[in-house]
Amino acid sequence: SEGDHKLCRDLPVRSGGSGLGPYKEGSDVSYDIRVKTSDRKNAGTSARVYIVLHRDSKKAKKPKRSDKIWLKSGKFDRGSIDRFAITLQDMLSPVTKLDIGHDNSGVGPGWHLESVVIYCPMTGIEQTFVCKEWLNTENAFERTLIEDKSLRKQRDQQEEWAVEVHTGDKQSAGTDARVFLALYGDKGKSDEIFLDSVRDSFERGKVDSFQIHTPLVGTPFKVRIGHDNSGAAAGWFLERLLMRRTGDGSDDAGFEFQCGRWLAESEDDKCIVRELPAEGKGIRSVLPVHKYHVLVKTGKVRYAGTDANVYCNLFGSKSDTGNRALKYSSSHKNPFEKGNEDEFVLEAVGLGKRIDKVRIGHDGKNAGSGWYLDKVTVWREDQPDNKFEFICDRWLDSKEDDGCIERDLTASGTLLDKLTYNVSVKTGDVSGAGTDANVFLNIFGDKGETGERQLKASEAAFNKFERNRTDLFRIESPDIGKLERIRIRHDGSNPNAGWFLDWVRIAVPSQGKQYNFAAHRWLDTNEADRKLEVDIDLSEVTDIEHTIPYEIIVQTGNCQGAGTDANVFVQIYGEDGLKTEQTPLRSRSDTFEKGKLEKFKLDLLDVGPIQKLRIGHDGTGFGDGWFLDHVIIRRHVMKGSKRLRASLANAGRRRKSKKAPGHDRRAEDDGDEDADYGDFQSRRASSASGLSSRQRPRSAA
């Protein structure tokens, strides 16, 4: 009833001294074991199940094997997957064979076993042992299984850490909240890992021990630790944190993270997340903790303010802050109201010399959650003259614009610095497959990740994730490279939250690729392995039409009756007779209103240098007439293309001739030689037949 429920442990030899070690080489190796019971009549068992792992190695003098491990917490019901985390002193991965059996106890001991999957994070090897046989009195109570090597997967190698959390000895220092941490090193970082236990952890003056797995982060330089503010007494006084790589006996394998502060909304600076610099023999210099000021300006449009819970993540040249709640403004008691500027202070370690990106969003909760964000300005407290400004000028609202409630903002302010990821999610065609829970997706590539995004606004239907339905979502993110895996989950909220996910497909038009991720599984606490979150590896890559992104900025005139309710379309003409398809300019907002400037991003055929634009509407709706002021088209030239070489050559010729009589120097002012711009002016009304006004293409800065 305590700890991890284990009644048997392997105890590694530890050298003299106190604290975390050091440990002997080869100690504490974790294994994740998944046992799948067949989905056939009477397949489940009431008996006690055990497993024995074997490894035959040519280098070893004799084979290694574990003791008999009883899988006591398993239910082994028909069609279910039972999951077990075990820790052994020996490295047995890859496992050569395994013995699995039961004690023939209970009223229905007969068992039909489908398969066993063993994953060792330290080696990254996942092995599948297929059985598909009965274990009963008519056959045998135990079977020896050999790995099906055709099903072996090599995952990213992970390392194991022993963690000690020291709660301070102050009044009310303990917490009932869920505590998490993220580790950052010079070679990578971990996700946020919750330090969960069945015992009552993080009590006043106590030390709690955990084992966690992270990617290979190299030498740590900081840890971010916090809690979710849940429970009756969430406030927490953290004294310090100790971490050591298990299996590493060197003196510089341990790291200390001093805190000595409250993580409580009623104490100190009201922050419930802290970043702590690493200390230890392996650390050359301890990084300072810096304060960053975040100034958030809400727009002045109608209903611009929000009562939702807003968060942001600052991405520096070396690391990031993680998502931080923007709750207590130093400017206004009620933050994020129309036209207001709200200032917040975040503490962080090791972000680097510059801030490259700001990720900002909200949870969509409370009435009137939609928010029109103007811009975000960030500066370090000791460098007030070095400010980084990030323009948004868009809605974060599931019912406005593109439906996104989270955006990545870069210094350029253009839509072209992000790729479009078109996500299709197929719910299975089985009974009870749909869900009303909130679904979240994180996409991982060989250059990074999108970060977790809520799949909130489907382009296919208002009621998402219904049985046998495919929902469409669009995610905008900086380029994360070739896709490798996804992580998808739901929060289990609302009745009947269980969900049968069939597959996820992600089309990346700028790459000309579609990535397919097969799932065919439940995310349900009452089905299969009872997990609500799953990592899915790439199944297949297919080619799709290769396009490039265009940013289209449309300014409606400011004269009386200038706006239109009709459906507006564009078509771009380039050289050699190339042209795009006639494409509608769609948005969830009320578009093309009097005096309004709007931005759209379309992935279309690369037509080369833009020769002309065709724009018009279908004449539908009440008051379809439209006064168009002008259109600006921007697009990047893809690297390595003939268009880029021509653009660079033209830029060189412009520099040589910039002092020549009559030379237009506006083209140099934008400083971007990897983009083309077309500015098409119109001072007349546009009719349904396309452009009814004169347009003159010219360069635009």
Automatic annotation (TrEMBL):
SMART domains: LH2 (SM00308)
InterPro entries, sorted: Inner_ear_hair_cell_LOXHD, PLAT/LH2_dom, PLAT/LH2_dom_sf
Biased composition (Low complexity): 683-694
Residues in PLAT domain copies: 29-149, 159-277, 290-410, 419-537, 548-669
Domain of life: Eukaryota
Residues forming coiled coils: none
Transmembrane segments: none
Biased composition (Basic and acidic residues): 1-12
Pfam families for this protein: PLAT
Region named Disordered: 1-22, 648-701
Name this polypeptide is given: PLAT domain-containing protein
UniProt source species: Macrostomum lignano
